[in-house]
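[Q] Does anyone have a clean structure-token version of this?
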Amino acid sequence: MKTEQELNADILKVTMIIRDKYPELSKYISEMTVTIPDVETPDINIKNLNDYHDSLVAILKRYAPSHISEI
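[A] Here you go.
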């Protein structure tokens, strides 16, 4: 399993690809349920980071199937 630092680096990488190549998708990142916690002080852990990373990758894969190799 990846560490918190590795997951944060992966999240940053995917986020930068989205913002650089597909800026129109940026609005969906802030609207994702995984980025809008339903509690006042959310617990950020490996599972949550992994889920967030997976959801970013899923958005990118659905939107740009011909660019999957960049991930």
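[Q] Thanks! Anything notable?
[A] The mean pLDDT is 81.
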